[in-house]
Amino acid sequence: MRRALVTGAAGFLASHLTDAMLARGYEVVGVDNLSHGNLRNLEQANRNPRFQFYEVDVCDLAALRNCVGRIDVVLHLAAYKIPRYSTATNTLLVNSQGTLNALRIACEQSARFVITSTSDVYGKNPVVPFAEDADSVLGPPTVTRWAYAASKMFDEHLVLAMAEDVGIYATILRIFGSYGPRQNLSWWGGPQSVFIDAILRGETIPIHGDGLQTRSFTFVQDTVRGIAAAAEAETAGQQIVNIGSSEEVSILELASRIYRLCGGIGRPPVKMIPYDEIAQRKYEDVRRRIPDTRKAKELLGFEAATLLDEGLKETIAWQRQWIPEAAYLGNIM
Predict the structure, then answer these.
(1) Which of the following CATH numbers is that of domain 3-178+218-243: 3.40.50.720, 3.40.50.300, 3.40.50.150, 3.90.79.10?
(2) Which residues are known to be catalytic?
(3) Which of 170, 216, 257, 284 is least enclosed by beta carbons within 10 angstroms?
């Protein structure tokens, strides 16, 4: 029986991936230090005898080695995000050290390795949609939000270098805006999470910048299909692949859609927040972030299938249960 290690297993995306790998017949070892993950996300997995969970920090190599046993594939999702959620130091060190340790496990066992990188590595590149061989255009290191992109770019170089040195099969996946049930209910989970929360509570929707920046949002079940396909593909070794939807939407339009899907009528109540108020420091945003998805289709047979409104309906229905006072907008259709 194939055996997979999933890092960050109690997190939003990794917990869904854990469920998917179990459904595919794998034994799964999940590790998470629970700094941002939640054991509630693993309730389904914990009912499966082929799942084992360990509260382990991916930066602790000895502890990681002690719990994994035999492994056929390492699915490395544990990471810190843009420093406004923590510190640039944590983002840089956790992402680099965690990836190094997960890679060591894969190299030691000749296991295949899949890492979730980020669309943020494309930075401010104006050529959209982003193809995997496009330039990374990051801002200056004096703007700490780029620490996340820099850490993931380092991770990508490290994965490709070590995979070549040791001869393991490795795939880098650049994830575009995953959302859905189990998402974090703060900005860590993305703007859609915060917008849904504000609307269901009857509060003003916070919009960063002018709201005209555009994004691609990918329903979690689609994202997980792409990751699972990479875990089993024979065509994506030493490759970088975008995993995302090509449906482009502005942040203002996203807020309007969510408001309408929650039962709101007319224009949603929004508050525009200047970037320099986000983290009390200089901040730079990306105006457009949309993937070129041709490579994912060619190498993995992957295309996002869930339209944004359909995914948002399911996400709103899930998030509503965590806000008991959110009945004023009526039923989710």
Answers:
(1) 3.40.50.720
(2) 148
(3) 284
